[in-house]
Design the sequence.
RNA sequence: GUUCCCUUCGUCUAGAGGCCUAGGACACGUCCCUUUCACGGAUGUAACACGGGUUCGAAUCCCGUAGGGAACGCCA
């Protein structure tokens, strides 16, 4: 043990009532980066005190998605539900210290107070009936809640690292409940006790908690605990500026995997959303953590833009390992045999240059995964209907059949160019396009001579033969 | 309703009083490259919400207005 521990501790504290929200993922990323930046710790706390809504499945899903993104945390996750006793202990300590009190009002009474306040255009609040009353006068048989004595006058100020100085009149703050009548802690109270006990120095979370920060600060101060720094980051909105919801498509971090995005691309995109380091656009989360300052988080909310994510993802696909991408494609399309996998791996280098997502890549990969007979798409069959194309196909077939068994792309291309020169006045497309249509079944593909090499002479001849039959059966346009 | 927060190209953002005739990225247009589609390269369109101050000077500071968001539970 050396100096008193002043290093940073940040946390991500999801409540397991659903999947990991994309905004939550970004919050986790910010916390992770800041902890790393300062050489501190990042911890995970599961806020599962809502027993009715928390599920083990949600916990698993959240942890799975965090891991997918590559966000790791120090130690074991803390489960808030297991800390009930400590939360109660602190609440009672506050009562003893005269900082909190028992309140015997019924939920019905509180409801009428709220309604009255609202009707008068005031902030709905508890009327502090039991604040200074002798508990001896309490009605028999009523289990009390514990409420904090909030200051009545003055202002409270928080110097938020993102939002700047935020000030609110104490008259706006309520004597909120710390411990429910059944002895369980409220969220507001549990968060403070846990943040303190876990040594959290920086609370980085969604700005929907900005108002809560004032209430929580009260509890920290009542206990004489140091108040952590706050950084309230704005929410992520849908493309239309409204709150992100199901109709915007992806909402859960896990869905991005389904949509074909790489975790490093999602991290990069999310980090860039609301945080910046000058004009830098492409960076890993490790790089970001070196630059990361909470004060560089934007105070305004931002919108999700999948087009930009596509662009970033395309970049990471280009530099991704071929074997990894091959596995991701195979995982998506289902099992295939070793020969297909081998072809796909060999062709991956050219394939990955032109796809923005794994979904597209899997679609393009059909070039290597499907066998004859296969379908020609509309444009390909149009090309194959051409009179010249039919002739060209015969020339191509004969020329490639004469090629050696090593079947190199340069030789293939040379053979095709010869045909173009001799038969089509050097118009390469006259030869290349039918060839592409026959091999790929589509009019777009990687460089087709290279694809042919990957496919191998046997498979190429198969596909050409099939195309020849198809052209014969389907007739062709005459000039 | 009350309180709090926010407001730079369509989108993400740079910008901490003069470096701003406002920069970058995505998207979009045009051109080049090219056997296709992409990639890549070049280039173009496009923004300081509005109104008042403060200042020699404001995208930057202050105040209003408008618009957007959040919070006001014995939910988290």
Sequence:
């Amino acid at each position: 043990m050396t100096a008193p521990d002043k290093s940073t501790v940040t946390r991500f504290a999801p409540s397991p009532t659903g999947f990991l929200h994309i905004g939550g993922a970004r919050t986790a990323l910010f916390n992770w980066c800041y902890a790393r930046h300062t050489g501190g710790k990042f911890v995970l706390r599961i806020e599962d005190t809502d027993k009715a809504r928390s599920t083990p499945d949600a916990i698993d899903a959240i942890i799975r998605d965090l891991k997918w993104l590559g966000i790791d945390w120090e130690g074991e996750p803390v489960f808030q539900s297991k800390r009930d006793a400590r939360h109660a202990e602190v609440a009672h300590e506050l009562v003893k210290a005269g900082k909190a009190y028992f309140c015997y009002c019924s939920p019905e009474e509180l409801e009428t107070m709220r309604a009255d306040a609202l009707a008068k255009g005031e902030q709905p609040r508890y009327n502090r009936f039991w604040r200074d009353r002798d508990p001896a006068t309490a009605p028999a048989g009523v289990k009390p809640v514990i409420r904090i004595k909030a200051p009545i006058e003055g202002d409270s100020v928080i110097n938020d690292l993102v939002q700047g100085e935020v000030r609110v009149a104490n008259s706006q703050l309520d004597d909120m409940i710390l411990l429910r009548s059944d002895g369980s802690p409220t969220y507001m109270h549990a968060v403070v006790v846990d943040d303190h006990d876990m040594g959290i120095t920086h609370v980085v979370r969604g700005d929907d908690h900005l108002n809560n920060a004032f209430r929580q600060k009260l509890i920290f101060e009542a206990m004489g605990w140091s108040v952590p720094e706050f950084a309230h980051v704005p929410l992520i909105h849908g493309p239309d500026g409204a709150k992100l919801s199901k109709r915007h498509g992806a909402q859960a971090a896990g869905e991005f995997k389904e949509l074909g995005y790489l975790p490093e691309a999602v991290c990069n995109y999310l980090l860039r959303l609301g945080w910046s380091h000058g004009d830098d656009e492409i960076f890993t989360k490790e790089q970001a953590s070196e630059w990361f300052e909470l004060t560089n988080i934007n105070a305004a909310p931002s919108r999700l833009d999948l087009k930009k994510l596509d662009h970033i993802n395309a970049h990471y696909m280009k530099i991704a390992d071929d074997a990894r991408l091959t596995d991701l494609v195979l995982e998506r399309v289902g099992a295939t045999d070793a020969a297909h996998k081998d072809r796909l791996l060999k062709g991956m280098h050219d394939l990955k240059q032109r796809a923005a997502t794994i979904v597209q890549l899997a679609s393009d990969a059909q070039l290597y995964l499907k066998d004859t007979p296969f379908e020609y798409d509309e444009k390909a069959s149009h090309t194959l209907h051409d009179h010249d194309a039919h002739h060209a196909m015969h020339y191509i077939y004969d020329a490639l059949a004469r090629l050696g068994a090593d079947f190199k792309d340069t030789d293939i291309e040379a053979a095709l160019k010869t045909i173009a020169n001799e038969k089509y006045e050097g118009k390469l497309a006259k030869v290349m396009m039918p060839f592409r249509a026959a091999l790929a079944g589509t009019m777009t593909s990687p460089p087709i001579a290279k694809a042919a090499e990957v496919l191998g002479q046997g498979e190429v001849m198969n596909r050409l033969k099939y195309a020849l039959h198809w052209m014969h059966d389907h007739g062709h346009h005459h000039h």
